[in-house]
Amino acid sequence: MTTVKKSDKQVGGLDTLFLKVEHPRRLMTVTSIWTFKQRLDQKQVYKVLEKLCEEYPRFAKTPAHEGFFRPATWVEPVGWKFQDNIVTHTLEEPTRQALQKYCAEQVVTPFDYTKPLWELHAISGLEDDRYAFFWKAHHALADGEGFIRSLLSTTSLGATLKKLEEQSIVSHRRKKEKPTTKNDTSKPESIWQKLPTCISAVMGFIWLILYKIYVYSVVTIHDLYCIMLCVLPVTRKDLYYKGLQSHEKEMAWSDDVSIKDIKTVREAFGGTLNDVMLLVITRCLKSYLESIGKRNDNYISFIIPVSLREPSDWSFQNVVSGSWGFFSMKDLDTRHLLKQVQTEMLAIKNSYGPRMLYETWQWFFSHAPGLSPSMSVYNHVCDIPHGVFTNVPGPTVPIQFAGEEIQEYRTFPPQSGKGSIGMALISYSGKVSVGAITDVHRDYPQVANGVCSRFAEEFQLILDEAKMEISKKNANLNLREKKDK
């Protein structure tokens, strides 16, 4: 007998929020594009989709029967079969632009709530007879990690993911146990270790206190500023326009950059992969806005999703929150801009705000979904940031779906508000790219393409700068070694 999880019976609080916050011009739709060298075998695809619906029941259900004080439940539609959610399409032209246009049109098409809230578009007519799958699902089903887990389980990574799931439970248990410390005699003795124990302990304690004060001050300033933006009737200037939000959307993605090259930048300037990519994207947006003569804001603000999952949590539901990050569009050099990005990310990672927001919405919409705020409140909050930025880590090696290797793997988050940009950083098979969804509006022509087309070029400039910094460091080290001799 199969045990049905509570998350597969009742729509969770955060799941309900994603249903409440959307309107016809800003759908909460998560999308992904996979490309293949050739057409896939239909029987193999059907077999995989049947397994997907069995292992993740939300793919076979739709939310219904919501009451004022009762959340909706996941209900199986009468007479539904997964083939009903498959759409076939042939492009009129075998170009990237034609594929992007078709996918953008599907992003603004609402779901039919008499069927489960997902679709698979099988697209032919690409260049060199290639084939594409366009996945489309409502954010109410799950967060990014949940979708990654579910879709990748249908690929050749399925067995590996099962092992990782089992290992994560074991490793999480081990973390709760007190680690046994071992003396590492292979490391050279540092100046810190040469100090008397009492002095090094006091200095270490003072350093820890000062660092904590710094972190809490950064978090406090950041969180107070976010609260102030929600309360005050202020809005951003860049990417915003008057009137109703455009119903027409634009979708684009960048050329790839190598993860090895990103490591080179990190070696020269520090920071995480996320920090470096936020630096590049900030400069791309700055360059685009200045090219059309419309940059007014000094900071670009992104909603940064924050996963609240335990290492052992592989559930298919929304266990995510988020915070705003503010990244400088002033004329800062690479090193100073990266430090500014790191400070913002430090505030987001150490803030209790995302956890408090998650717990609040989870409880509120699980007990009184009928007391949801008006759409004007949602619109005000959603229109504050310039967009959403999420990191979607993909497989490090090429994988297969229904017996065919996935050539390109791209994912896109929904937009946050009017004029905003929904942007995702995607890594796959040792390469990284960005994808974006934006409104189509005459005031900001081709935003998505304008940002994505600059990505590889902007990164190359930073990479060249990083290589120069590393060569300088190596030259200085060589000179010191010669002097010592």
Automatic annotation (TrEMBL):
Catalytic reactions of this protein: an acyl-CoA + a 1,2-diacyl-sn-glycerol = a triacyl-sn-glycerol + CoA; a long chain fatty alcohol + a fatty acyl-CoA = a long-chain alcohol wax ester + CoA
InterPro entries: CAT-like_dom_sf, O-acyltransferase_WSD1-like, O-acyltransferase_WSD1_C, O-acyltransferase_WSD1_N
Record keyword Transferase present: yes
Transmembrane segments: 216-235
Gene Ontology cellular-component annotations: plasma membrane
O-acyltransferase WSD1-like N-terminal domain location: 13-157
GO biological process terms, semicolon-separated: triglyceride biosynthetic process
Entry similarity comment: In the N-terminal section; belongs to the long-chain O-acyltransferase family.
Protein name: Uncharacterized protein
Species of origin: Mucor circinelloides f. circinelloides (strain 1006PhL) (Mucormycosis agent)
